[in-house]
């Protein structure tokens, strides 16, 4: 199996110097940039909006995954598409008309990701799987970086990988929260495609070495 894609989260970067954070990601061997958007309603924290994404877009050629931890993500999809996100990932718990939102994201020429919090079962998104480009399995309760992983959530990632094989779906499976050099092997075992890492990446003195560890190289 291929090594997973690594998506460092700028949540753990220095917000006063995002360009430097982006440069560290660009030079690390990571392939994606993970953008944690929080609204202080869906999650108990507030981060940044589309202007931040538009401003940092010229600083990286990597794939941008906007992880919208916001209610009514349908009202934000267009703004993040215009800002230069490649994947627009929303929470199934935060909207009613998820299928319509996937259609909207696709009509904007972007990839659509669905995310589930630890208490949401895979069965809840089963009908949407044929339409998804990415499924982001939260392995912590969203809202903060640097939390401890809830390892049971990896079972859902593994199920999603198996379901894709059985049913010939094409989404990528991503895990987000508490991934570090010690826990990455659980993600490898589950067969995930994308590993998000915030605290582990930005806390590492040698970013390239951390990316290798997260990849299991
Ligand atoms: C949590 C965010 C994560 C977070 C991961 O709400 O969705 O992307 O940045 O951070 P770490 O890797 O520090 O757990
Ligand atoms: Zn995230």
From TrEMBL:
It comes from the Bacteria. The lineage of its organism: Bacteria, Pseudomonadati, Spirochaetota, Spirochaetia, Spirochaetales. GO terms for biological process: pentose catabolic process; pentose-phosphate shunt. Gene3D superfamilies: Aldolase class I (3.20.20.70). The active site is at residues 36, 176. The keyword Manganese applies. NCBIfam families: PRK05581.1-4, rpe. InterPro entries: Aldolase_TIM (IPR013785), Ribul_P_3_epim (IPR026019), Ribul_P_3_epim-like (IPR000056), RibuloseP-bd_barrel (IPR011060). This is Ribulose-phosphate 3-epimerase. It catalyses: D-ribulose 5-phosphate = D-xylulose 5-phosphate. GO terms for molecular function: D-ribulose-phosphate 3-epimerase activity; metal ion binding. Catalyzes the reversible epimerization of D-ribulose 5-phosphate to D-xylulose 5-phosphate. Its EC number is 5.1.3.1. One of its GO terms (cellular component) is cytoplasm. Belongs to the ribulose-phosphate 3-epimerase family. Binds 1 divalent metal cation per subunit. Pathway: Carbohydrate degradation. Substrate binds at residues 9, 67, 143-146, 176-178. It is an enzyme of class 5 (isomerase). A divalent metal cation binds at residues 34, 36, 67, 176. Its cofactor is Mn(2+); Zn(2+); Fe(2+); Co(2+). Keywords: Carbohydrate metabolism, Cobalt, Isomerase, Manganese, Metal-binding, Zinc.
């Amino acid at each position: 199996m291929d090594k997973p894609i690594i998506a460092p989260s700028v949540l753990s970067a220095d917000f006063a110097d995002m360009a430097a954070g982006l440069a560290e990601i660009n030079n690390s061997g990571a392939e994606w940039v993970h953008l944690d958007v929080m609204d202080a309603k869906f999650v108990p924290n507030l981060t940044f909006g589309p202007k931040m994404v538009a401003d940092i877009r010229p600083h990286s050629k990597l794939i941008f995954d906007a992880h919208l931890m916001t209610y009514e993500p349908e009202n934000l999809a267009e703004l993040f598409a215009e800002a230069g996100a490649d994947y627009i990932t929303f929470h199934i718990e935060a909207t009613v008309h998820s299928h319509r939102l996937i259609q909207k994201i696709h009509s904007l020429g972007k990839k659509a990701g669905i995310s589930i919090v630890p208490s949401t079962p895979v069965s809840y998104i089963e009908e949407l799987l044929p339409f998804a480009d990415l499924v982001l399995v939260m392995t912590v309760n969203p809202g903060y970086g640097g939390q401890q992983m809830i390892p049971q959530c990896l079972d859902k990632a593994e199920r999603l990988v198996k379901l894709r094989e059985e049913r010939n779906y094409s989404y990528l499976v991503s895990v987000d929260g508490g991934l570090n050099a010690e826990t990455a092997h659980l993600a490898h075992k589950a067969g995930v495609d994308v590993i998000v890492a915030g605290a582990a990446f930005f806390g590492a003195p040698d970013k390239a070495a951390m990316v290798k560890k997260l990849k299991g190289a």
